Amino acid sequence: MNIKEKKEQLGKLHYQMEDAAKRAEKAGEIHNSEEWNKWTDDYQVISKEIEQAEAQRDFLAKNAEKVEEPIKKDAKKNQKEKYNDAFNDFLRHGTDMEPENKQVLRGGAVDDNLEKRTTAQSTTVGKGGYTIPTEMANHIETAETYYGGMLTPGLCTTINTNSGGTLNYPLVDDTSNSGFLLTEATNAETSATDIDFTQGTLNAYKFTSGLVRISSELLYDSAFDIGSWLADQLAIRYNRAKNTDLTTGSGSSRPKGVVDASSAQESLAKRSISLADIRNLLYSIDKVYRNRGTFMFHDSTEKLIMALQQSSTYNENVSLWQPSFKDGLPSTILGKPYIVNNDMAEVPTTGLTAAKVILFGDFSKYVIRNVQPLAVKRFDELFGATDQVAYVLLGRFDGDLMVASTCYPIGHGYMATT
Q1: Taking Cα atoms as reference points, which of 230, 68, 54, 55 lies closest to residue 135?
Q2: The pLDDT of residue 262
Q3: Cis omega (within 30 of 0) for bond into 70
Q4: Is the pLDDT of residue 120 over 50?
Q5: How far apart are alpha carbons 69 and 220 in whole angstroms?
């Protein structure tokens, strides 16, 4: 089933749910919960299938290259292809790789067209590690979208640096100053007000995918695409860890996640979320940030918000939750897009806890700093007894909400405890 067919399926399900909700409301009843839960479960499954299919389509479109006539292809391999071949040789054979490929990875030129590479890689990843080639690094970066809301392309501001020293990020708060009418009593020189700059800082915390093992049978099978397989396995682990810290990191010797960096704005009801709660959170953010605002919450919270659509208090004239059936247009809540992030806390079903379960605001003010390049290391002896080779991905990043004043761009709703 293609994306268009899935969207049509999603549209039919939505109208089925909407019709049932209206009929139940007209009769003064709540629609059958068991059937409604099945519909919302189906809706979320289909939505995620569409999201993944669109991400795969966009990745292929972004990385597609024009097919050229393969005349003397092997003799005319460019630097990128040579490095990819050399890296795959390293993945398969480690230090027993071909001398020419070892020369490519260490910076020696095979011909005049080969880009020079430095030997300083060892200071980043340790002896025996190599930076990941462009295609594989792009694959890992693209795979981020599958493993968490904070890695959604275009949501946060991303900065890539080639070194890991402390990065000072300039901030300015000029909201208390304004222009003025130029008269004889006031002039541009005596009434001028300087713009005061402050700065935030971003560090470079090292994260690892953890060891990924592969059997020698697959490793030396020439038909097995080890580069693509390894990129998938490393991306899953690395990006899950990355999303978790960018969401809930404490900021103490690690990134400060957006949840802790956000400002407390709205106390929600105990163990539930109402339309009033969502509206109050939206309007607790300054209009300049609200206009660019996005909601973020756990998958189960999305289900609760969808259920408000068919409650007896739902006003059909209020566009609370509206799904999207068009490419490139997100589903919305009160007209604002939302991101599902399963590293967010869930609405508790029992007990009382001040869990921060929903965010809203301008996520472009959250800055993610990536230190390039990503690197991989190979371990030949560690699992030699089981005839396996282990790999690990190493990367450095940091993240924080860059705020210049007490007017916070992102707020959170937290559960009431009394």
Answers
A1: 230
A2: 93
A3: no
A4: no
A5: 30
Beta strands 366-379; 157-161: pairing state: parallel
In contact, 234 and 140? CB cutoff 8 Å: yes
Asked if 323 contacts 131 with a C-beta cutoff of 8 angstroms, the reply is no
Task: Find, among 407, 411, 398, the residue nearest to 168 by Cα.
Answer: 398
CA 416 to the chain's CA centroid: 29
CA pair distance 190, 177, nearest whole angstrom:
15
Residue with tokens 């809930």: 248
**Considering the entire predicted model, what is its pTM?**
0.73
Q: What pLDDT score does 44 carry?
A: 83
Rounded to whole angstroms, the Cα distance separating 126 from 292 reads 43
Residue 282: which of 343, 338, 329 has the closest Cα? 338
* Helix, strand, coil % in the chain, rounded to nearest 5: 40, 20, 40
Token duo for residue 278: 């969502």
User: What does the alpha-carbon distance between residue 295 and residue 321 come to, in Å, rounded to a whole number?
Assistant: 12
* 108, burial (CB in 10 Å: exposed 0-12, middle 13-18, buried 19+): middle
DSSP 241-287: HHHHHHHH-BSSSS-B-HHHHSEEEEEE-TT---HHHHHHHHHTS-H
